[in-house]
Amino acid sequence: MDMKVSKKLGLKERYTMMTRDLAWDTTFQPMDKVFPQVGYEGIKIHDWDQWEDPFRLTMDAYWKYQAEKERKLYAILDAFNQNNGHLSVTDARYMNVLKLFLGSTPPLELMAARGFSMVARQMVGAGPRVACMMQSVDEYRHFQTQIHSISNYNRFYNGMDEFAHQQSRMWYLADGKSFFDDAITAGPFEFMVAIGFAFEYVLTNILFVPFISGAAYNGDMAAMTVGFSAQSDEARHMTLGLECIKFMLEQDPDNLPIVQRWIDKWTWRGTRKLASVGMMMDYMLPKRIMSFKEAWEIYFEQNGSALFNDLARYGVKVPKCFAQTIEEKEHITHQSWIGFYMKPDACPFHTWIPAPDELDWLSEKYPNTFDKYYRPVLEHFDRQEKAGNRFNNKTQPMNCQVCVSTIKFNEPGDPMEMCFRETVYKGEKFHFCSDHCKEIFEDEPEKYVQTFISSHAALQGKCEPDGTDVNAHDYRPGARMHAYWRMDKRAAGDFNGSEDQKNFAQWRDQATKN
Amino acid sequence: MTMLKTLAPYDFPSSDAVGNYQGRQLLYVNWERHRMFSRPFVLALPPETPFAEIIDKHMTDCFSYHPDWAQIDWSAVKWLNGSRPFIPDRDKSLADNGIGHKDLIRFITPGLDGIAGSGY
User: Fold this and answer.
1) I need a labelling partner for A296 at 20 to 30 A (CA). Which of A102, A200, A488, B2 fits?
2) Are the Cβ atoms of B40 and A450 closer than 8 angstroms?
3) A-chain residues within 8 Å CB-CB of B24?
């Protein structure tokens, strides 16, 4: 008997059959009831079939690629562990970059996974639905590999084990949490602009430079591989975010002002989130890659300008905050490091004053600002520390109602003055770090009056560790924050004299001497 | 006008309404051109707290670490509540000094500009 063999499908046909061909319009219930969220933000979509799939990937191919990445990743992690790879990094100070990055990022990856899964559910078109679902699975993978990665270092160094507990409690983790909480409580299209476009497309390189390149420059093969494994997915994420922007703008001219407002809002929110990332580049990596300022110029000013030139044909303008971020690139990392240095009891990672050659590097990289505004105070701190009078600001911070950063940024045009903005809504005062955050609040005050500000919550008695007796005569709200945070005191304060420093030196000696 | 769009009624209380502070109110304090302290600090105090306590206790505890603190000419200091200049009466309460919930007190010390005149 003759077998009839069908011709193997081409990639394009195969993709179509595995995505759009599997979609249908509902008839038992109207489509707008099945997909209730796609309309309420005001975005008008007339024809979902016009969505251009930016990459044509079917699930079977997806699993194959991702499985290969995982195999490589875990082979390298195993080799790293078996060879005590952690001892080959430049300097034990480097571990604090991991503590900050891996302590804050995995829960945000999880929120991204949840967000894309929700958006995938709401997208009417099969193309974006499948792409969002894959991105959700990617984000979940990043979340898991980053946590695996923590375990490589957690066995040896202090302060990494409570990241999950600290995520929704620790003051300095609040900005990232607030960023994702804001995005995930928006509608599906705003989420796509927030995470898919502003974060993944415009800002993601700045996030990965200190992590992946920082790991490579400092001899950390494990973190570098985790980072590369994640970043290999980012190319897809970026094209998805950009395609979504183009799709909205092509569908209806009324979408432009809505999209523009979201681009303005989320580029600014992302920029604020990156202040502490920049600080890793300028202060925390023992061997620096480039300054934050240089990275900002390449990845935001140059690449961002090219992107927005490309989008100008749709009527999109550069984000409103563009000029302010260019002024701030000279300042924010120094302002952030001072903010962390002065809280030696309240961060589960170490801080230090840069060594003289590192101060010289900063002077060279920041010729307009470092010697004038920041070097004198850092040298003052250093003298005080050596004299046994280490700075410790024990007060609670004032925070921005929108980005939840501590209010520590300067007035535009005057680096010596703090920038304050305020507004009154329903008889209550609200404070902001900038005009941009104030505008975000005023556009949707109902949302941002609910912001969780940890210093405020503590003063309301909402941040007490288990077993606190609120009726005790000496009870003071917020007096037991360290226990509430589950702070490991060994991980806090100065790097000099820390257990991490001593252990690293001892283990490295054992590995390299007789 | 709000641009918030929702699928259902959306009305939630402010997280930091004065009623959440058990008879106290929030006060922020910043020492201008002394950015060593990174950001203003926040306190929750009863409105009847005398203003002297803000200076003698809270500001002294925090700001006296700065070498400029000992140099302050108290007859020359200026104060702002938000952007509004005011002259606090040490012996009067926060309320009697017109200081309400979530007010920001900005403390200005003319002639003192931080470490090496850097604003820090």
Assistant:
1) A102
2) no
3) 459
